[in-house]
Amino acid sequence: QVQLVESGGDAVQAGGSLRLSCTTSGIVFSNYCMGWFRQAPGKEREGVANLDRGGGTKYVDSVKGRFTISQDNAKNTLYLEMNSLQPEDTAMYYCAAGESWRACDRGRWREVNAYNNWGQGTQVTVSS
């Protein structure tokens, strides 16, 4: 059974940093493409970062240069390092794992239904 558990969310001031963690069980990273998504109140869930099976990374333009996705295979954990946080980064952040080609595809990795496993989310709040 696949389980994804996020942690690390917090309330910070603009310009601050956070590191989100996604502890996984029941998956082998080499078989999945992994993603971080976020959803602000009243908005759709959006893809933020993606890590493919080969270790390649993808980011939405709004976080490029500020966020870094990585994984620790020994700890079965996915990370999202977030720097220079801004109020518009405020959202619930979700970890996702996808086996389909769409979760790894450069043009489709941001599609929510490309991923078949989701965590419960961790809240990030950035104040100005």
What does this structure look like?
With 128 residues, the chain is mainly beta. Helices cover 0% and strands 47% of the residues. It contains no helices and eleven strands. It has strands at 3-7, 11-13, 18-25, 33-39, 46-51, 57-59, 67-72, 77-82, 91-98, 117-118, 122-127. The strands form two sheets. Strands 2, 4, 5, 6, 9, 10 and 11 form a seven-stranded mixed β-sheet that branches. Strand 7 and strand 8 (77-82) form a beta hairpin. The protein starts with a strand and ends with a strand.
Give a quick summary of the entry.
The chain has about 130 residues and is mainly β. It contains no helices and 11 strands.
Shape from CA axes?
Answer: globular
Class derived from helix and strand content: mainly beta
Mean of all residue-level pLDDT scores: 96
* Radius of gyration from CA coordinates: 13 Å
Strand content: over 45%
Which sequence of SSEs, written as H and E, runs from N to C?
EEEEEEEEEEE
Report low-confidence residues grouped into runs of 5 or more. none
